[in-house]
Amino acid sequence: MTLKTVLVRLGLMLLGIIVLVAILGAVQSFMLFVLHASDAVAGVVIIAVSLGVYVGWVRLVERREPAELAPRPAAREVMLGLAIGIALFTATIGSLAALGVYAFHGFGSWAGVGPAFMIVAGAAVLEELLFRGWLFRTVRDLWGTWIAVGVSALVFGLLHAFNPGATLVSTIAIALEAGVLLSVAYAATNRLWLPIGLHAGWNFAEGTIFGTTVSGHVSRAALLRGEFHGAPWLTGGAFGPEASVAAVAVCLLAAAVFATRVVRTSRFGLQ
């Protein structure tokens, strides 16, 4: 592969990301300051605009059909991802409770749960298009699956380093658990639906079901309430439980399962 080909591919990737972020930023500003749209409406619009821009870019600029967004398996893989994401975070909370650093305090409210889910879903769609649809896919096509896993995980972790409550530990944790897990989930299916569901399911469970802090952002609506006590490496500190060693362990275990499938479906196991 020539240097020119590499530079063109990377340039198109960056330009596509810039176009999507710019269009979405303009649409969100219009919804917020002109339409005063609700969270539920904002979530739906984010999903529609993000998918629309990505599909349009792939067809018009890359001149191919977006197989990574094939419609037929969409519902099945999104639902599977949601279930796995919720299960993984539930396992994380269960581990923290078993370690004595998390205590359940009572029930919250159903109020705001629906809109909260739509915001979570919108964020999951956008981030998966950016980090897996563009970044992971481009690097994989240029240098292979495992380099793409490392690069996308590193970038994903670094960009979360600017979130409220972020530390070096939380940045490494996000890279290892979310960055690696979501990348191998994409590689296992070669589609974006499973990682989108996983991403949304994890964040929905973390913020809206259990009411814990999500990547430094405090949940506004939750079904359950609890409290953490203990060292930050166990609780995740101000960043939230996904910066805890329990979350890293649970997600890396799940990532290993997906990675096994990637190896088995690769011709030499080293793709």
Describe this structure in words.
With about 270 residues, the protein is mainly alpha-helical. The protein has one domain (about 70-265). Helix content is about 70%, strand content about 5%. It is built from nine helices and two strands, in the order αααβααααβαα. It has helices at about 5-35, 40-60, 75-100, 115-145, 145-160, 170-190, 195-210, 230-235, 245-265, and strands at about 100-105, 225-230. The chain has a two-stranded antiparallel ribbon. Helix 3 crosses helix 7 (about 195-210), helix 4 packs antiparallel against helix 7 and helix 5 packs antiparallel against helix 6 (about 170-190). The longest helix is centred in the N-terminal third of the chain and has 33 residues, at about 5-35. Residues about 265-270 have low confidence and may be disordered.
Shape, per Cα inertia axes? globular
Radius of gyration: 19 Å
Output the number of helix runs: 9
Q: Work out the strand percent.
A: under 5%
Mean of residue pLDDT values: 94
State the distance separating the first and last CA atoms.
16 Å
Low-confidence stretches: 267-271
Largest sheet: 2 strands, antiparallel
Number of E-type strands: 2
Whole-number tally of structural domains = 1
The SS-based structural class is: mainly alpha
Tell me the strand order in the biggest sheet: 1-2
Helicity level:
over 70%
Order of helices and strands: HHHEHHHHEHH
Show the helix and strand layout.
Elements: H1 3-35, H2 39-60, H3 74-98, E1 102-107, H4 113-143, H5 145-159, H6 168-189, H7 193-209, E2 224-228, H8 232-235, H9 245-265
Antiparallel strand pairs: 1-2
Helix pairs in contact: 1-2, 1-4, 2-4, 3-7, 3-9, 4-5, 4-7, 5-6, 6-7, 6-9
